[in-house]
Design a protein that fits this description.
By secondary structure, the protein is mainly alpha-helical. The chain has 15 helices and 2 strands. Helix content is about 70%, strand content about 0%. The radius of gyration is 20 Å and the shape is globular.
Amino acid sequence: MRTPHVMTWVLVALLPGLGAMTYVWGIGIVYNVALLSIICLATEAAAVFAKQALGNAPGENTVKKWSGHLFDGSTLVTAWLIAICLPPFTNFGILSLAGLAAIGLAKHAYGGLGRNIFNPAMVGYAVILVSFPSHLALWPASSDGGIDHLTGATILSDFRYRVGITTTEFTSLFAPNLQDQRLIAYSFLAGGLFLLVKKLLAWRIPVSMLAGVGFAALFGYDQGSSMSSGSAVFHWTSGGFIAAAFFVATDPVTHPRGARPQIIFGFTVGLMTYLIRAYGTFPDGIAFAILFANCLTPLMNRMATRHTTTPKPDA
């Protein structure tokens, strides 16, 4: 498939998860998606038009090239992936900074689509997360309480900073929140499985990410005491892990080629996500884990190429 067709299917696959988020947290999710789409498309248009206007030879159809880049769907996918990381009705200035960082810095500063080293959506999200952590920390606390009346820290923050509460007690206390998280996670899982059926993503990456979290939980769970870092199931279904596993880490530009490198890549993301959630400054470490693994992609591609091209010695 060509890029526009692939991106269209990715957008379709994101709809169940976005629908579940809207059901749980309200129309503010749609606000984020719509505004970020406009911001990212405007940034894409400005960047592409400026580069082509400065670099084109006389007589070239600048508008045609510009529209081809603008409507290939990749910009909308980036916008939607940032939007699913953000609480409802995120400030316009924060959304603008995220779009500029994702499209202007992570994508076009590296030469445009297909040349970027880091996942643009995660760069945009990481920039605003580091810059405005308090603004991104408050989410609706419970679907039972209503988004207009009750807000609080994310479920990962609540779990991370609980005091003297076992995991069983936490699960009972925050049952509505956890139920909402599972609904959203399973909705994104449905979209991810749809892409798997259509063979539009590398299945080894989400599977190895799940394995990475599961491996870390063997040492961090400790049967659920008040000092536990959480079970694998809790981390799989909390935050945006499932969405990241199927829609972000599987970006073909920023993940390595080949079966073994993809397994190492996914396992690294899963392991780093758990470690950052358990011991890092930020409650959710998915963005930083993916960006860290993106740094390893060129090395793994080079090692894989060298492995396949090196002649075997004669027996």
